[in-house]
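Dear colleagues,

As part of the handover before I leave the project, I'm documenting each prediction I ran so the next person doesn't have to rerun anything. This entry is a single chain, and its sequence is reproduced below.
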Amino acid sequence: MNPPIIETNSLVQNWRQWLSTPAGSFLLNWEQTQLDDLVSDIFGYHALQLGMPELNGLKNNRMPHQWLALSETEDFPETLNYQFATHSIALPFQADSMDLLVMPHSLELSLDAHASLREAERVLMPEGHLIMTGLNPASLWGWRHKRAQWYRRWGFKGLSSPACDELIGYWRLRDWLRLLGFEVKVSQFGCWRPALDKPKWFDRWAFMDKLGANWWPILGGAYAIVAVKKVPGGRILGATWKQRRPQTKAAVTLARRQNQTQGDAGVQRKSECESR
């Protein structure tokens, strides 16, 4: 029995076409900036980016082993050391083996978002980091996506938007992560201007990006989340060289006893001299 196809070719191709629009290019630049900042301070040995080869999510990360997993075998410019094809519900890694997993829009391109998220939890080791990006349905971009779905259903054209079936909201994704034992550490929002098709009108609404960051940050068109896998009862052991050696305390105690003994001997000699 063949494994189910999670990311279909039509969805991926439609996404790549939409990324060439002004809104898509702006989204790529914003997400690349966020990923460069978020992965820079995450340490470990094994890192994986799942999908979206237009982004180099591991560029600023210093882990020695990095991979880019694609949903289909196509020719892409090599942005990472290694590339291979896989499904997001069946990653070819052992459980608790990855230190960092970057999933840009992976759930939106998946026909089973729950299975993809459970697989991410499986391969991440305790205290491993999961970074995800997505489009916010509670935004102008989300409203445009809903309108584009209605237009396509009624046979109208002229409104560009990614062809994914459903956008996963920020609070909904937080609930899913919490149920799987993740703790959300960082949340970022961006892209407040309307996702218009014409570059001239798209640039005219640039002032909304400055206003949105201050007045309505949670209504941004895109979000980025950093979550850490927590294991109940787990304990992080510190470095052994940071622990205080018991010999030092014993040596100090012994030195104090020697000083006290010498002091008592001196007092005794002084008393003997005075008695004579």
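Confidence is low (pLDDT under 50) at residues 1-7. The longest helix spans residues 246-275.

All the best with the project,
I.
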